[in-house]
Amino acid sequence: MLLIDDLATSYPDWRVSFNASLPKGEITALIGPSGAGKSTLLGMIAGFVPVESGRLSFDGIDLLPLGPAERPVTTLFQDHNLFLHLSVFDNIAIGLHPGLRLSPAQRAQVKEAATRVGLGDMQDRLPEQLSGGQQQRVGLARALVRGKPLLLLDEPFSALDPALRREMLAEVARLACEQGITVLMVSHNPEDAQLIADRVLFVDEGRIALQGTPDILQNSDHPGLQRYLGHSHTS
């Protein structure tokens, strides 16, 4: 269980405060307008954004005293943060060992992760030899090998064409199911939530305004959600 209890931070002209209780092993989609606070929430969970008040725990462990590296979290951003001087293989492998000293089993794990994201024959290439979408897939593969129980996705597949985007989302869903990983995914595309999410949180004006199954995207008459979806009224 990921417990988010009055988790708050503030900026000079803005304050956010979130409440949610997310079951372990589920995929939750965070949707809402730009600037609503979705990425801020991920940043607080990952430890990158200071928390002013509230509680945050995962699987009974208080996360707030822990630094980003100590938390059971992998975060995958739009900016996939690849090392430009390292090959695809080494960029994935660094998720297992920062010094790239890998056992044979770990090397096999890296190769399998590269293959799973469709880069099995590109492991010797440098990032500059890849398209933007391929670079994002390297970032996903690195997240896969880290094996942390909580995966935060901040629009990592935005550069992919629709077919590949769906393929990568399916890979995330398969991984979450196989390894019991809890996924929290920011998306500006409601279709992403309908494809793989067990639960949807609609974030509006710095708070979670609505939550439920993906059906709420069709069935809720919440005015903020209707504005976000571009509907003047419910269908």
Automatic annotation (TrEMBL):
Swiss-Prot/TrEMBL GO biological process terms: thiamine transmembrane transport
Entries under InterPro entries matching the protein: AAA+_ATPase, ABC_SmlMolc_Importer, ABC_transporter-like_ATP-bd, ABC_transporter-like_CS, P-loop_NTPase, Thiamine_ABC_ThiQ
ABC transporter domain segment(s): 2-230
Domain of life: Bacteria
SMART domains cross-referenced by the UniProt entry: AAA
MF term (GO), any: ATP hydrolysis activity
Example of a GO cellular component annotation carried by this entry: membrane
PROSITE patterns hit by this protein: ABC_TRANSPORTER_1, ABC_TRANSPORTER_2
Membrane spanning residue stretches: none
PANTHER family in the cross-refs: SPERMIDINE/PUTRESCINE IMPORT ATP-BINDING PROTEIN POTA, THIAMINE IMPORT ATP-BINDING PROTEIN THIQ
Protein name per UniProt: Thiamine ABC transporter ATP-binding protein
Organism (species): Aeromonas lusitana
